[in-house]
């Protein structure tokens, strides 16, 4: 039996594709500029193997020109251009990628910069244009051709005039409708910001004619309009630069430009990994908590670039929740993108990168804690709570990563200490790591329960945050030392002698205690004599795992 080829209603297919694979219209510019950059790259690779061809970097650029009157947006490149046949193949066949073929033919693997691979990006132009005209001249050819299409109805190709090799794409920008705005794609500032957002690190200049006003020479208070060609993109991404060439200001400036935050980050990490996964990253540990940080509105994530082109604004898979405060970007050549290039196809590489980043952040934080204590405490003030949530969440799966990053106020040191510092100061007869919970340090200090432990000369950690005690319950033990609330029944320090005395006392005042229990009824479980009190007449204590403070919080929690 002969096999039949599928037929496709190409008109419908094109419409479906254009309107369904992209979530944002503005990416058409990213796609066209990426194609232009690929076209220049191809000439560059040709020059590497062809001695006749000299590649002068100055001659290669992309130009974007908007004309409101004719409603056209023109994207020109000085790249390799297309022959008639290539026009047919690459722009006439949906999902055919000349760039992908080029990579294969030339066996380009690592380190290549060519972006195209799916053969659909070009058609995204029809999201904003009703007519697209491509005039192109292949490098080394005398003939130029014009391809024109309104999208759904197919295309025409005819001979054209073009002086130099390269491609010019003219988009007739659609008219505004009630629901859809297209005028913005003719606005200089809007185009600039789209280019900055997605294509800032394209390696060739993206030029625009920028209009401005300046004081007129020789005349006071008079201004004249002027137009000037400017390069809009920064070209060399800061993360590809050598660390030695970069100053603290460069990193701070990048943080500011990218609007990661308006504070001055506590620390930056510049990672160039080339092990199991190859990626570059610049990460920041901020100083201040964003106003919405501890709300549901806050979105964690890092910017994700593939070969210098922005793919995702906030890739949340790159950061665990407990490090959700980290800002920055990751660029990798190793990602397998899905067709819209807005998502990833496989997350294996992403998982590897995330794991790698996670351990780098952890060691960076430990480093700050060790060498720049003051800075760490500033950071901790804002984000310590998140670390403690991290210990508590996921049934303590991450406590090992996080417990050494915790700080608590110490009764002895009168400042924040780590668990490690606490344990290293413990005396031999001290069995537990003691803590006391309360609203504030002052209130905890006045708790009758803290007196006895302090009198023994033992250090107490003061828990003033709701989450503290929950987190510590999950940690359970640090360096084999268990945690113990000062208000728990058995403190592990009452001497036998005292226990006996307590029992006698209990007998002696039995009736009084029974009467007290009758009056208090369900408010308490029992009334007992205690040897724990010194300057206070009574104290409340708990039996079992849940302390008074935790009970209060549990009661306040919404069901
Ligand atoms: P992709 O970039 O993923 O290959 P596109 O739909 O964006 O897919 O482009 C299809 C093909 O058209 C490209 O692979 C390339 O061969 C060709 N092409 C597109 N734009 C240009 C250009 N400006 N110069 C030369 N060739 C181009
Ligand atoms: Mg493309």
Automatic annotation (TrEMBL):
One of its GO terms (cellular component) is cytoplasm. Coiled coil: none annotated. It is found in: Cytoplasm. Residues 1-341 are annotated as: A. It comes from the Bacteria. Its main location: cytoplasm. InterPro entries: HATPase_C_sf, Heat_shock_protein_90_CS, HSP90_C, Hsp90_fam, Hsp90_N, Ribosomal_Su5_D2-typ_SF. ATP binds at residues 31, 35, 77, 82, 90, 96-98, 117-122, 167, 341. Keywords: ATP-binding, Chaperone, Cytoplasm, Nucleotide-binding, Stress response. One of its GO terms (molecular function) is ATP hydrolysis activity. Transmembrane segments: none annotated. Gene3D superfamilies: 3.30.230.80, 3.40.50.11260, Heat shock protein 90, C-terminal domain, Histidine kinase-like ATPase, C-terminal domain. NCBIfam families: PRK05218.1 (NF003555). Belongs to the heat shock protein 90 family. Molecular chaperone. Has ATPase activity. Homodimer. PANTHER family: HEAT SHOCK PROTEIN 90 FAMILY MEMBER. This is Chaperone protein HtpG. It comes from Paenibacillus endophyticus.
